[in-house]
Amino acid sequence: MTDELDGAAVRERIQASFAKQGLMRTLGASLVSVAPGLVEIALRPGPAISQQHGFVHAGAVSAIADNAAGYAALSLMPPGRGVLTTEFKINLVAPAAGELILARGKVVKAGRTLTLAQAEVFAVTGGREKLIALLTATMMAIEGRDDVID
Asked: pTM of this prediction?
């Protein structure tokens, strides 16, 4: 890791990019923690993001998982380089029901062009975490787009 990727600079960069995301605002998602190679995003369940059975919709779960993985990848990129999701797979392993939905993204393997990242998504109730989804994603580095994540 280079000196450019100190924790404070990474947090500032990710927070600035996250603030531009309309979808995250619409979902009510928030950035919980940021460190080089690791990002957490939280979502409070509510009727606006639920599906017909009252669980948080898989689309909302997928969105925060993709963002957590993508921002984890972006956190390791040098200034002037962004990332775009080129592919992801998500396994939904339990209903998204709890007091909080938490996506924990991490970089598995960072590369110059492609980065492999994962996000585990948990339903949190009474301080206990239950795994509800696992996302694996490939991120492509792009030049000249510092804050890009998709």
From this structure: 0.92
